[in-house]
Design goal:
- The complex is a heterodimer.
- Chain A has helices at 13-20, 27-38, 41-63, 65-71, 88-97, 101-120, 122-128, 133-166, 182-212, 217-236, 266-291; strands at 172-173, 179-180.
- In chain A, strands 1-2 form a two-stranded antiparallel ribbon.
- Chain A is an all-alpha fold.
- In chain A, helix 6 runs antiparallel to helix 8 and helix 9 (182-212) crosses helix 10.
- Chain A is globular, with a radius of gyration of 23 Å.
- Chain A is built from 11 helices and 2 strands, in the order ααααααααββααα.
- Chain A starts with 12 loop residues before the first helix and ends in a 6-residue tail after the last helix.
- Helix content of chain B is 34%, strand content 26%.
- Chain B starts with a strand and ends in an 8-residue tail after the last helix.
- Chain B folds into 2 domains: 4-219, Rossmann fold (3-Layer(aba) Sandwich); 229-292, 2-Layer Sandwich (Alpha-Beta Plaits), CATH 3.30.70.
- Chain B is elongated.
- Chain B has helices at residues 44-51, 73-76, 95-105, 114-124, 140-151, 170-185, 197-203, 221-227, 239-248, 271-280, 295-303; strands at residues 4-15, 18-24, 27-29, 33-37, 59-64, 67-69, 80-83, 158-162, 189-194, 206-211, 214-220, 231-235, 254-255, 259-263, 287-291.
- Classes of the chains: A mainly alpha, B alpha/beta.
- Chain A binds chain B through residues 1, 6-8, 11-15, 17-18, 21, 23-26, 28-29, 31-32, 36, 40-41, 120-122, 124-132, 292, 294-296, and chain B through 2, 30, 49, 52-56, 65-67, 72-75, 77-80, 82, 84-93, 100-111, 150, 154-157, 186-189.
Chain lengths: 297, 311
């Protein structure tokens, strides 16, 4: 047997067929990951919880109509504007969801990526299938990133529906004073959803790394969520101001800049660069850890 | 070494200061049903994890189906079906969906035939009727079958089955045995680990015995049986005289009070001729027994342990 031909064709039944068959693209696994993730009761519950935020918000403002419009200053940003224009429900809900609820749900999904498979024992079966370890990490991260997008869209879309159902809807006045129509505003909302999704990608990478460290998914989830809270606290402390540009949470609330005309892209760009940095660093850490790990679960 | 489906050379694994596996030279011939036998905790599962590239080896080399592991895992593993340390599934998916999920991870498994292959694997292990039940509703035996079905999704050259009949009732155990035999008849090499000697004895052609991380012996089942020496046990008040007779026959007797024992080490020496010689010499034979060395005795001799001792 020549060294270049380590698998002689006459050794068995399985040798010929798989060798002649071309390898698939590996997209089937991504499809399967998406299906398994989004058909899971837990994921649906998380998305439902996110959908409740704009609904509760809109109902609360509707019920206490007079108070909200007269106070103006209290509560989250844009809260007072809701009674004039229901379209602000999405915006207010995003502002409310970003510090806690979105990171919470993203922490659960990202922390579960590898550790969840390990705790079920399915990780060893995926790896001997064989799913390459790098491919599995990429697919898992793609699934978590898709969840960030879907979670954000749920808040925005449910917010728009709830707002339109309970309040008058009309042209939106931008922060810079101009007024834009509904179509233009819808585009801006999608842009904001994209901004928030990108904001959560760094956290997802942190969660992915945490998930490679343990076979206890709850541990990885908690670590991820705690980190997002710590980052926000550090961001709020004036004494640690020098750290601010490096915190993955620093630009989380910067999406309001997309409501100016012309659009101010500086936050968008800075945020994207920062998140890409986190993806690179924590992605590399996750790869380094996962590709050399002994799978004992 | 194309005649070996699995070959390890000086394989070792150390966890911290604990040596789980040491100096393992495994040789699983192609086409064999190899029983990987040892008490719980003897290093069988750790070895299997290394063979499949789940765990890195601390020392030594591994060759599976002619390819080095874990370097050639991408080429080797699609030809290997495995059941490692119990079946594991997504409890919220049906049995069928679980298999589809695993199969979609295999880049060489054609998506066009996925549905059919999943269905026929389920049929093959007798789970056709329960295919659409959620896996969390499966009994342990059903999960075990589903795990075996997962190993059969594609035609394989090697099956690695770690304790495949765990949790199965006697009927299920028989079915698994039959399944393994039919796969072996198709030319698939099967490496099956077990702590139950009786199980291995009934379906394996080859056997390797592990204890405390070391491979004590390996070979064909007949080889191992032949290794076992029989033992002669004699009850008599005339121990001194009996010793002399046995020694004259070439044996090495050990005398106790009222009994004499000896390993039956002389080839072609029939037990009845021993008795005849004893009686002729005037030894009062009150009891005579040839303790057959069952494989079980060999196993206990080799491992120095019972079956369920962690080593």
């Amino acid at each position: 047997m020549s060294p270049a031909e380590p698998f002689p064709p006459d050794v068995g039944t399985a040798a010929e067929a798989p060798r002649s068959a071309r390898r698939g693209s590996g997209l089937a696994l991504l499809g399967s990951e998406v299906v398994v993730l989004f058909r899971r009761v837990r994921t649906i519950a998380l998305l439902s919880a996110l959908a409740l935020i704009p609904i509760l918000l809109a109902v609360a403002v509707r019920v206490t109509n007079d108070d909200a419009s007269s106070q103006g200053g209290g509560g989250p940003a844009f809260l007072g504007d809701i009674t004039q224009n229901g379209l602000f429900v999405s915006l207010t809900a995003l502002t409310v969801a970003i510090p806690l609820f979105l990171p919470l749900t993203v922490g659960v999904v990202a922390g579960d990526t590898i550790a969840g498979e390990a705790s079920l024992g399915t990780l060893r079966y995926l790896l001997v299938t064989p799913v390459g370890r790098v491919r599995l990490l990429l697919v898992k991260y793609a699934g978590a990133a898709l969840f960030c997008l879907v979670g954000t869209l749920v808040v925005v879309v449910v917010g728009a529906i709830a707002g339109a159902a309970l309040f008058p809807v009309g042209p939106v006045t931008l922060l810079s004073g101009q007024t834009i129509g509904l179509g233009d505003y819808a585009g801006r909302m999608l842009l904001m959803a994209l901004y928030v999704t990108i904001s959560l990608l760094g956290l997802s990478a942190v969660g992915l790394f945490a998930s490679t460290l343990t076979s206890v998914p709850v541990g990885a989830m908690a670590a991820t969520i705690v980190l997002s809270t710590v980052a926000q606290i550090v961001d709020a402390l004036p004494q640690l101001e020098f750290l601010d540009p490096w915190l993955f949470t620093h630009y989380w609330l910067g999406f309001a800049d997309l409501l100016r005309d012309p659009v101010s892209w500086s936050n968008f760009a800075d945020n994207a660069v920062l998140q890409a940095g986190y993806i690179a660093v924590f992605g590399a850490l996750a790869l380094g850890r996962f590709t050399t790990k002994d799978i004992l679960s | 070494m194309t005649d070996l489906a699995v070959r390890t050379d000086g394989l070792g694994k150390t966890f911290g200061r604990q040596r789980a596996v040491a100096d393992l030279d495994l040789a699983v011939p192609r086409g064999s049903v190899y029983g990987f036998l040892g008490p719980n905790g003897s290093g069988k599962t750790t070895t299997i994890r290394m063979l499949l590239g789940l765990t890195s080896a601390t020392s030594g080399t591994i060759e599976v189906l002619g390819g080095d592991m874990p370097d050639r895992a991408r080429d080797v593993l699609p030809r290997v079906g495995a059941l490692v340390e119990g079946p594991a599934f997504y409890p919220f998916l049906s049995g069928r969906a679980n298999l589809v999920r695993l199969d979609s991870g295999d880049r060489r498994a054609p998506g066009s035939t996925r549905k059919d292959r999943v269905a026929s694997a389920l049929e093959r292990v007798g789970l056709g009727h329960a295919a659409d039940k959620k896996a969390h509703a499966y009994s342990l035996g059903m999960k075990q079958r589903l795990g075996i079905a997962a190993a059969l999704l594609m035609p394989r050259d090697l099956l690695v089955l770690d304790e495949p009949s765990n949790g199965l009732d006697p009927q299920g155990t028989r079915e698994v045995r039959g399944l393994i035999r039919s796969l072996a008849d198709d030319g698939t090499t099967v490496l099956v680990s077990s702590h139950l000697l009786a199980e291995v004895e009934q379906m394996c052609t080859h056997i390797g015995v592990m204890s405390a991380g070391r491979l004590l012996t390996q070979g064909t089942l007949d080889d191992l049986r032949a290794l076992g020496t029989h033992r002669v046990r004699l009850l008599t008040p005339d121990t001194g005289l009996a010793r002399d007779v046995l020694a004259r026959l070439g044996l090495l007797p050990e005398a106790g009070s009222a009994r004499v024992e000896a390993e039956l080490t002389v080839q072609g020496l029939a037990p009845e001729s021993i008795v005849a010689a004893l009686v002729a010499a005037g030894v009062r034979v009150r009891g005579f027994e040839v303790a057959g060395a069952s494989l079980e005795d060999r196993f206990v001799d080799l491992t120095g342990e019972g079956f369920d001792v962690a080593g």
